[in-house]
Amino acid sequence: MRKGMLAGAAAGLSMALANPYLAIADEDRPPPPNEQQILVEEVPALARRSTLLSFPDQESALAALATMPDGGQDVIAMHLGRLHPTRHEFLPGLPPLVDLLVDRGEKLTDPDGAHLKKNLEDMGNGQFGIMMLPVDATTAIVILPTMTVESDPDATPLPEERVDLGGVTYEFNGGERTVDTYMADGATNAIGFMHNGKYVYDDFANGFDPETRQQVWSVTKSTTTAMVGIAEGEGLVDISKPITHYIPELIGTAWDADPVNGWRATTVEDILQMESGTYWVDVPIHQPEELVLMGLDFHTNGAYGMTRNDYLKEMTRVAQPGDHYRYNSGDTQVLTWMLENIYARPENGGYQSYAQLLSDKLWKPAGMESDALIMVDRTGAAFASMGLHATTKDMARFGELFRNGGKSLDGRQVVPADWVARSHNYDRANPDHQGGDRGYMWAKFPESGDTWGYSAVGYGHQRVSVVPDWKMVGVRFGNDPTDLGAPQEFEAVYRAIAAHLGENNPAPGLPAYVAPRPEEPARPTNRRRDPQGPRRP
Prior knowledge:
It is built from 17 helices and 12 strands. The chain has helices spanning 2-16, 35-50, 58-66, 68-82, 97-108, 114-124, 137-141, 179-182, 219-233, 268-272, 282-299, 308-313, 329-344, 354-363, 392-403, 417-423, 486-500; strands at 146-149, 169-172, 175-178, 188-195, 198-204, 214-215, 372-375, 388-390, 443-445, 453-458, 462-467, 472-478. The protein has a 6-stranded antiparallel sheet, sandwiched between helices. The chain has a 4-stranded antiparallel sheet with strand order 1-7-8-6. It is globular. The protein is 36% helix and 11% strand.
């Protein structure tokens, strides 16, 4: 009876999960695993991670107790830091409290009722959101420390050519709206647009301003894969090799070859394309579980909970690597771990933190104007699947970096041009340069229907969307993950702004991946070549 109850619960839960984030069926590949079955089989692993595996061994427990005063000081310092707001933030990811309350009050007392009217119209069309939620409540409860990703104090300001786009009209849900109306519902904190290399427009709500750093959630993933591309360009990563070559701590785990069950080793490219074969259901299972265990580990100084790396070592395997796309934040975290290992070596710079690495390799070279924040665990390991906090302008500059083939505004090649092209290669039919369902963690834009470009996408409907044919980059910071119509409405806004700026092609097509010229040879990208590869001694 218990097994039947578990199966029933699993069925209900699997139906509630967002289909795009589960394994995708493809007639050219083996059938994906049965979601109900693997969920039932995951229950003992969930229980084990939150009980037996969350308690340290005797030696580690004694060390945790011995260093508890220092660890306690770290916890207090982190919370005191959160309670000393900057001029632009009340807490990391949240705007100044007074500004937030004033802005929300103005929306609720607007004599035109634009806030309430827009929400009621959307709800009438079956697009439900939390109508009065002024902020992303999830941000406030994710209490992990952060490290600063330093910007370039001498960065060239983003070129601006301001255009008033507030009155631009678009159609949505059978009616006509303006960009100003779009910002009235309270579900959008900020938008920003670039066109032809110039920053043309932004708007803010809910107390946000140009200097407020939003937690961009899984948009972080696209910055992490860009860092892998930089490492490949420096000759430090071969993505056809098994991940255990770079992280020997994963030997014998779900990421390694398993001859008994017929699993091959997971390669770096498997992970880049979210085809590692490891089991992950972002919400409501693995991501909340990991966050809670990491938070407990930090607040108890390691006496209970799990670090990022401990958690990743305990993930389970459900499919052959390379067979199926499955949205997987664990994949991105493993890539971060790999980068930390590689660049910690003295010959590669001896980096002691991912924040410093991200600053030196991407943030400063790209010309970012504001410091960013990256979440870390108790050991300092970066949570670079969802933990980046950055400003609207800097995320627009990140999108512009990719629109320009990896070059910064001053012409510096920050990310290799071939890597940029491969990052949004969705062509699985090309055996030499096989793409993935989500590229290298860049989604198609839009995610359904005609593809205009590609997007870095995050929880709460964060977007950094690039449309090369329109010479455009659009950024959207949101706060309401339950707003079902948010992606489609941002697409409508984007399209209307493009037309207003003179981009008349209503639905440009994203060009297929083109290999670089002979003088710029591509690195091997076929994940099925040399699946085992040599291991580092």
